[in-house]
Each structure stands twice: as C-alpha cells, then as structure tokens.
Design brief:
This protein has 406 residues and is of the alpha/beta class. It has 14 helices and 13 strands. The protein has an eight-stranded mixed sheet with strand order 6-7-9-8-10-11-12-13, sandwiched between helices. It has a five-stranded antiparallel sheet with strand order 1-3-4-5-2, with helices on one face. Bound molecules: D-malate.
C-alpha cells in the first residue's frame, strides 16, 4: 500500500545507552517522532484530531537489526500494510543514510478511538492520507428529472441504500458506509442537500419525488431490489418509496422516524423554520434544531458531531430546505401503510431521541408484522452517527437474518 512521506531523523546522544548505541526505548520514540513528522509533511499532524479520533497503539512488534550511534541520520519509511474497519497497521523501516544499513523494522497496529475511548471506523480522510484502499469508494453524479444527485457507492454485493434525514446529507451515514463489506453500500444526497443539485425550476421536491429519485439511482446502478435504510425524513421517503415501488424493496430499516403525519402545531413549526431558512440561511435551521437533535452526552463528548451537523446543514440550499419542510408538512399519514408492509423490517433509534422518542418508534414497529425495534442507549435523533458501533451491530444482525438474496 502507499505510504506517508519518508523523513530523516537524527540520533541524539541522550537517546543512547552506556555503550553509546541507540537504546531500545529511544528507538521506539524515534520511530514515533518520525511518524508525526511524516504526518506533518503529508496530511498534517492534526489529521486525527480534526476528524475527532485518536490512533491508540494496540500492538507493536520491532526487530533491532543493527546499532545506531549519536549523530547518525536515519531515513524512516512508513508504509500502511493493513486496514480494518477501526484499525490500521503501519510498517516502519529505519535505514542509516550514510551506509544504507537497516537499523530497525517495526510493525504497529492502531485502533481509532473517539474522545471517550470507543473504537470508531477509520475516518475517510485518514484512509486517504495513509494511502489505504477506500473499499472501492466512488462518488457518481446521477441525473434525474430536474436534478443531479451525488451518490456514493462502496463495495459490491447485494444493495444497501441509505437515505439521510433533515437538514443533513449522506455523510451522516459515514460509519455505515465504512462497514458492511459484503454489501454494495449506496448513500445519496437528496436533491437540494449535500452535493446534489436540483429543487427549483419545476415543481418543488416533495417526498414522492425524492422516492422516485431513489428509484432512479437504483436504475442507474442496475440494481433491481435493495434493502432501504432511512433516517427520519429519510424514513418518510421510504414510506413514499413503498407506496410507489414496493416490488423493489427487499427489506426496510427505519431509523429515528415515525409513520404519523404532522400535527397542526408541527405544521406551524415547519412554516416558522422555512422563514428562518429564508431570512437567516440553512445553518440557522440546524442551530434551532440542534438542541433536540443530538443526545446531551453526544453534544458534550463528541463536539465534532455538532460541527458535522452544522456543516451538513450549511451544504443544503435554502430552496432544498424550504421544499423539504413543505414536503414534510404536507406528507400523508403513513400508518395505514404499516399493516401492508410484508418485507423484513427493523426499527432502530436513539433511546434519547427527543424528536421521535422510543414510544413513537415502538408504535411504528407494532404496526408492522414481525418488525423488531431496538433502542440504542446514549443516542439521540441521529443514532447512526452518535453510536455507530451499536447501530452497526444491530443492523448487521438484521442483515444476517434476511432470507437469501433473490
Ligand atoms: C429529520 O431528522 O429528518 C427531521 O427531524 C424530520 C422531521 O422534522 O420530521
């Protein structure tokens, strides 16, 4: 695999033992110094912290091949040799420049952890910076009637489609896209959100149009049937998809969503938010929603997720947000659909979701024969982003239990 830039480091006298040789512990430190210098010379030494993760060393194996002396200058090459979902392994070789003698070779495995020590998938930027394969990641533009959608595709296998919530974009599924290696993962930005264009110039995007866009994406990728996973507004899109394209649904995953339509008060709230979008912009919409979007613990322990939500909202267009608010305000009650849903269904959401609380998700589950509900602890309304490992485990168990692909 590709590597970080080579760096040259000097052996200092204080790193040497009584015989004047670079000592073992100092050699490890020297390799660590070289890694950070390499990162600084490449993607930046803050590539981990700006992605909200830290590389925790889990295993080090080192072979000391020859002695180095004070004043020797070593070239350290760093190569990525293995990549897991949450871990990666680097190999470092330190060679004395003057005579090309190999001094030491080490292999180190790191696990990416978040601020509270939980393993998390290796962020995309780190994957790229370390030259690791991105798992066949591809972002395609798919032209649909009156729109141009950004669609991220990873891996091969049966199709697993992710539809984001409001006012977010496909990056909210980053941890799900990084896992599920036996599936073709497909995440789109709905029109007017993320990097997708198209909302005006014709009838405003409504949920049916979004559902047809999802079907058009499947057509463009040559996918006949898929497991569809939608969060909140993405769940409303799934109901529309079921109304219009039920034969293309292999299974459904509803995350942090509900079947009922807006109450009168809810409809008024949509109009107020639309006015906020018009007058103050889309980031202001996220600002109004944030206090109820993430669990309190998430906002405190993972501040980068607050930033991520703000950034996603900032990428949405005013027209896209206003159209989505109108679409959600006017959406049909989907409770009458539930009894007719005849595919395996999972409902999963944050135990602390303030927007679609567990009781609401339980009611959705109860309406669908054989559906199962899992409440994920310490997560709010964006559970897949807040508690990725827990959500991925639940989703993985569900996918494993599906009847063989037809
Ligand atoms: C979402 O996350 O998509 C929204 O909270 C949905 C809604 O406001 O009904």
């Amino acid at each position: 695999m590709n590597s970080l830039p080579d760096v040259e480091v000097s052996v200092y006298p204080y790193e040497c033992d009584a015989f004047g040789h670079l000592n073992q512990a100092a050699c490890l430190q020297l390799l660590e110094r070289a890694r950070w210098e390499s990162l600084a010379a490449g993607p930046g030494a803050d590539v981990f912290t700006r992605n909200g993760v830290w590389p925790a060393a889990r295993h080090t194996g080192i072979t000391y091949e020859a002695s180095a002396l004070p004043g020797d200058v070593l070239r350290v090459e760093t190569e990525t040799v293995k990549r897991g979902t949450t871990s990666f392994t680097l190999r470092q070789r330190a060679t004395r420049i003057r005579d090309q003698v190999l001094i030491a070779e080490a292999e180190l495995t790191f696990v990416c952890i978040d601020r509270i020590g939980r393993p998390v998938p290796v962020p995309d930027e780190v994957v790229r910076a370390l030259g690791m394969p991105t798992g066949g990641r591809e972002v395609r533009r798919v032209r649909v009637d009156g729109g141009d959608l950004a669609v991220e595709i990873r891996g091969t296998g049966p199709a697993l489609v992710f539809v984001h919530g409001f006012p977010l974009d496909r990056s909210m599924w980053r941890h799900q896209m990084a896992g599920f290696g036996r599936w073709q993962r497909i995440a789109l930005d709905l029109r007017g959100f993320g990097h997708s264009a198209g909302h005006g110039g014709g009838p405003a995007a409504n949920l049916a149009r979004h559902a047809d866009d999802v079907a058009a994406v499947l057509d463009a990728l040559g996918v006949r049937r898929a497991v569809l996973c939608g969060l909140s507004m993405g769940g409303y899109v799934l109901f529309e998809f079921w109304r219009r394209h039920a034969d293309r649904v292999r299974a459904l995953v509803f995350a942090d969503t509900k079947a009922e339509a807006d109450s009168a008060e809810g409809k008024r709230g949509r109009d107020e938010l639309a006015a906020v979008a018009h007058h103050e912009g889309t980031a202001a919409v996220a600002e109004r929603m944030l206090p109820r979007m993430l669990a309190a613990a998430t906002a405190a322990a993972q501040p980068e997720l607050v930033t991520a939500v703000r950034e996603m909202a900032g990428r949405a267009s005013v027209e896209g947000v206003v159209a989505a608010l109108a679409a959600m305000r006017d959406r049909a009650d989907s409770r009458e659909l539930l009894a007719g849903i005849g595919v395996p269904t999972l409902v999963v959401g944050g135990a602390e979701d303030a927007l679609t609380p567990p009781a609401v998700m339980r009611a959705l589950t109860d309406g669908i024969a054989g559906a199962q509900f899992v409440a994920v602890p310490a997560a709010g309304h964006v559970a897949p982003l807040e508690q990725p490992l827990a959500v991925n485990r639940v989703l993985s168990d569900f996918l494993e239990g599906l009847p063989a692909h037809d």
